[in-house]
Design goal:
The protein is an all-alpha fold and 78 residues long. It has one helix and no strands.
Length: 78
């Protein structure tokens, strides 16, 4: 196909098609870049939650031990 024989309407169609392709690729690139950033934030949040969970588990174990000691001291459990 010879590009010099295209009509104005065909040139407009070709330019629109190429523009749409460029726009589509740029939108996908922006989407995946944003998704990568979101995944990094999500991983950071998960690590913080795991750390917090470990701290609360330790505190709960300490409280349970204190309750057992308290009941033993008042004679509730021997």
């Amino acid at each position: 196909m010879d590009l010099t024989n295209l009509t104005v309407t065909e040139w407009i169609a070709v330019i629109s098609f190429v523009g749409s392709l460029i726009f589509g690729f740029s939108k996908f690139y922006a989407l995946f870049t944003k998704m990568d950033s979101t995944l990094k934030d999500l991983k950071k949040t998960i690590q913080e939650v795991e750390k917090s969970h470990a701290e609360y588990s330790t505190r709960l174990a300490r409280i349970e031990e204190q309750i057992k000691t308290l009941f033993k001291s008042i004679g509730g459990i021997k």
